Amino acid sequence: MNESSLKKTLSKLNIGGLRYFPSLGSTNDEALAWAASDAKDLSLVIADEQTQGRGRLDRKWFTPKDSALAFSLILRPTAPLRPHLSRTVGLAALSIADACLKHGLVPQIKWPNDILLHGKKAAGILIETVWSGEDVDSLVIGIGVNVSRTSVPPMEMLKFPATSIEDELGKEPPAREELLHDIVSAFIAWRERMGTDELVNAWEEKLAFRGEQVQALDGGASTVTGSVQGLESDGSLRLVDEHGKSVTVRFGDVSLRPAA
Ligand code: BT5
Predict the structure, then answer these.
(1) Ligand 1 centroid from CA 135, angstroms
(2) CA-CA 20 to 30 A from 240: which of 30, 77, 110, 114?
(3) For residue 153, which of 142, 143, 164 has the smallest C-alpha distance?
């Protein structure tokens, strides 16, 4: 990738600005700093390699050179979007899922922030907020997608199996710039429907483990076990526990695992 080819690829999408780096600590860090200064809505930070790529709770995100997509989009919410910001992770997940579908893959969304291909993690989302007092000034939506086989981390780094688009297609993957274009263009289209049931329904349809037993681990001692029913309208996850009681799992540092 380079700046001029990226500009050309994204020229029809009306993004707010572009910062490209051959190597960077984390695109989210750069985007957070840019968002806190003068970034326009839909500005994009992208790197060919991240040396300090982050997951949630500062877990490491592996982005070796030239093998993956690692980018962050800056969202400056307008008044009509504000009531629906809890759906942003769904918006991002659907955008990645649409790009996968376009290339013949069958994506599932492992709530809240992973995209699975054949049950393995191929992409992750990290959303961070810039506050202005008690209001959201902007959101930084970090997206990492494993494109080539070499982007898949070594097993010992993983708690959940990982894969790449190349592994799942079994052939040369699409160019990273093309995938980026597909994701950003789907993001722009879905954002127009952020407040609609259509978005929540499409998100729910793609949920992994529907009807199956999962454990929702919150990173601490507490665990909820139940079968995945669907989503609430704010995007929280609805499970039914062993007593038939509906349990809502809210966002936070929650990880789903198939229950033994
Ligand atoms: C995520 O966190 O899945 C969010 C990942 C977001 C990465 C993007 S890349 C662009 C932007 N800039 C950043 O610095 N970050 C964002 P979480 O659910 O906490 O999952 C993290 C866990 O996934 C790690 O602890 C590893 O076990 C695993 N992991 C790390 N790298 C991976 C990879 N390339 N593919 C699959 N799994 C990975």
Answers:
(1) 27
(2) 114
(3) 164
**DSSP code per residue over 50-115:** BSS-B-GGG-B--B-TTSEEEEEEEE---TTTGGGGGGHHHHHHHHHHHHHHHTT--EEEETTTEE
Rg of the Cα atoms in the chain: 18
Q: Which of 26, 61, 114, 160 to mutate to test the pocket of ligand 1 (most atoms within 8 A of CB)?
A: 61
What spacing in Å lies between the alpha carbon of 12 and ligand 1's midpoint?
29
Domain 213-258 CATH (choose: 2.40.128.10, 3.55.50.30, 2.30.30.100, 2.60.40.10): 2.30.30.100
User: Hey, what amino acid is at 161?
Assistant: P
* Amino acid at position 233, single letter: S
Atom 30 (ligand 1) nearest CA: 61
Check if the beta carbon of residue 75 is closer than 8 Å to that of residue 60.
no
Q: Which two tokens stand for residue 240?
A: 């039914």
The residue contributing the CA closest to ligand 1 atom 17 is 55
Read off the pLDDT of residues 70-102 as tens digits, 9 standing for 90 and up. 999 999 999 999 999 999 999 999 999 999 999
